[in-house]
Structures are given as C-alpha cells and as structure tokens.
Amino acid sequence: MDNKMIPLAIFLASYLLQINVIDAVIGINWGRQNAQRLLPSNVVDLMLQNGIRAARIFSSEEELLEAFAGSKINLTIDLPSVFYKIKSLQEASLWVQSRKQHLINSHVRQIYMADFAFSFSFNKTIINDAISGLRYLQEAINLEGFGNEIKVTIPNHKGILKFNNTSLRPSEAEFLDIIKPEMTTFIQILEQNKAPFVVSITTIGDIQEWGVDYNFAFTDNKSSLVIRDVNGAVYTNAFEVMYDSYVWALKKLNASSDLRVIVGQIGWPTDGYPGANASMAERYYKSLLPYVISNKGTPMCPGEPIDIYIQALTDENRMKYWGDGSFTRHWGIYMSNGKPKYKIDLSGQGGDNYPAEGKGIMRMPNRWCMFNDNQSDVAKLKKQIDKACVTADCTALGPGGSCSRLGYPLNVSYAFNMHFQFQYQNETECDFDGLGHVSTVDPSTPDCVFPVEVVRPEVQPSSAGKECFVGPNLAIFVILLSIFVLELMNVY
Predict the structure, then answer these.
(1) What is the C-alpha separation between 72 and 332, in angstroms, rounded?
(2) Could you tell me the pTM of the whole model?
(3) Residue 225 in contact with residue 159, Cβ under 8 Å?
(4) How confident is the model over 263-306, as pLDDT tens digits?
C-alpha cells in the first residue's frame, strides 16, 4: 500500500469502528401509584434537565404520551391488561391504528405486555394469552411499517429461574421446567423480530435471600466474596451474577447470542427495609451507572452494552406489595416535591452532585397533624390508627424503616400526619375523633422525616382502578402497629 494511503486507511477503520459502537442506555421508570402525582409536563421537564435519553411509563394513557411528544426521549410503554383483549391480528391492528400518531410523536420504542406473565402463578392460560397477544401486536406494528423502531416484549423477574442460592454460580441457572416450552416459543418470537429479553434485578432482596456480605450488592467490588464459575468466570458483585444467570438460562434454551438482555427494572430503595436508605442508594448508583456506560459487559457478555432502567423517578406510596416488600414504595430518586433524596449522576460519569430539582412544583403549607397524647380511650386510639394507615402509607414505621425507632407518641403522630397529607391537609381529616390537631412545628427527627406533600396537581381517578390500591397485608401491619402502641402505652 502506498505510504500516503496509510493515514487514510487508519482514519476510515477508526471511523467504521466508532459508528458500529452501541453505547449502553441508562433509562428511568416513572410510575404513578401515588396519592400526590406530579404533572406529566413536570416529569418530562425533570427528565430533560437530567439528560435522560430513555424512559418507561407503566401506562399508555394519551395524556402521558402527549407529554412526551417532541421530547425525543425514547419511550417504553406498558400494556398490563391489553393482551387479554387482543385475540387476533385484526384486534391488534385496530389498537395500533388508534394510537398510531401517539406512537410516532412520542418516540415509542418498546411496548411491554403482561408484566411477569411467566411467573404469574405459572398459569399456562395467562402465559399463552400473553405470547399470543405479543405475536399479534408485533405483527400489526410490523405491517404498519414500525417494526424496525418499535419492539414488543414481556418483562420477567427472578421467579422464572432455578437458581442455586448457595453456590451463586450463574452457570447453574436455568428456566423452571414448567415454563420451558412457552419460554422457547417466546424467545423465538423475540429473535424473529429482534426484540429484547427484559428482566428485573432486585439486588437488595437478592443479598438478603442469599445471606451474604452486603458489600457484594455493589459494583464497587469492595466485598471479599468472590464467585468462581466455569470457563474461568469470576464474579465480585450481585449485578453480574444475576445478569449472567439470565444469559445462562437463555443459552440453555438455545437462544441466539444476538438476543439482547435489557434490565427493565433495577434500583435501591430508601426506606421500608433493612439497609434501605439514601446513603446506600447513593453508593449503589455511584458505581453501577459508570459500570454500565463503560460497556465493560459481564463475564458471559464481555464488551457488550447493557441497557438498564432505574426504578424509579419518584416513590409510589400506593404501590401494591406483598409480605416484607414495603420497600417497593420507596424506589424513588426524588421525593414527591421534586427534590432529590441523594447524589446521583444520571449520565453515568460518576459525578458527585445532586440531580436537577423539579421546577414549578408547589408544596402545601408547613402544617402537620399531631396526636394530642390523649390515652384515655385505648379502643378509640386503635381505631384511629387503623383509619390512618389503611388510607395512607405507614411503611416507614415498619422494621428497618426510617421511622421505626420513633416511639410513642410520635409513631401515632406519624400515622396521623401521613393520612393528613394524603388528604391534602384537609383539617377535618386531622380530627381523628378528637385525638389529632394541626401544628406548624415540624416534628421530624434526624432519622425520620414527617413529610409535607405537594399541592394537588391533577384529579385522581374516581374509579377503584389499579392506581389506588393498598397492600394486601397492610391490615396485618396496622394491627401489629396498634399492638406495639398499646404495649408502649402500658410502659408510659
């Protein structure tokens, strides 16, 4: 080759390499199971301020899609129940045509159907309905000419895996036998359409379940625990263990190595569980996000970009939960007033700054509902505590919660105040049959914040829909809380 051509050849090779590099994406999830909801326009503005390139909303409501129109944020939408109604290609086509303009204008890039259908009591009817609906919807999207841009898939979580909680070796993971036939069909549809396999990773729960050093939860690799697997693979953190467990399970069903695995939900809660606090969440993201954008990959997928979606933008104080899962109400990076809870660099560069604050979000006045310490009628007190915690979120009072060490009577005041704020500081909602009163003195402690919520930005749905449910074990929690209060009263 002519020596004069060498620099040009090097330049062209470098250019071709650059244009073929796919960077990992850090997206964020926004759910609306809240008593106090931010306006969609506020949320989109908050994402843009923080340079968010991708987002997931757990809905396909038109008002939400309209808020994202023109933002150029790559949007993932959830269709939790549509798959039950899509029984044919014709029905799928009608759905796509009715939302065609929104899909285009709002930059929709992924559609999630039937969250966790494969682990929903392993019900074959539900699984097959979900797969059928997915097939029809993706085909309808393809026929409209959007197949290269919009992909349909079904999110999954760890419940679909057989996993060795003792060895923690990813190579031993595989899908449960009961769902392997349907999973094989599902994988084939994804591969035919170049759609991703989406998983969720709940590191705080994994660490607790495995009973290992908490440091293993973080990708800063400060844990002394090392997992050695086949082919010389070495694991020093829980993220790589769980990610490669899904990869191994897919490999054992002969999935193509080109099938992308996206982490559709990952995060660290700030309350409601041992180890769930702002400082731990800050540490979690401080190492995870730079790890993701480095395109380092994992032992099974070296050098491959891994897209993740942070769970979540804000807390969801009406999120449904089971058992000791009350922490799922506290995933948020932001408080409901648009103020960040901790430092996080959403660009993944590892900066030591707080993210941008929400604009145009107004708090209600500095008023709190307090218990007046009247102990004369124990039965009445118990009834009013029950009333407060059934309608509001008292999970911060539970074991490991930020307010679990308040003691009597502040724990009663916390419950009363949460109800008061949920009711937008309606003074009649602070009466509690003569046991409550409104105060302008902040009762917060160094560990426990008595919140003042934001003003009512939008009307809540009047129906008893999915947005407004209370955890199924909350009544039990309230009874335990009441017993706890009564025992303390005996001491005092």
Answers:
(1) 23
(2) 0.86
(3) no
(4) 999 999 999 888 999 999 999 999 999 999 999 999 999 999 99
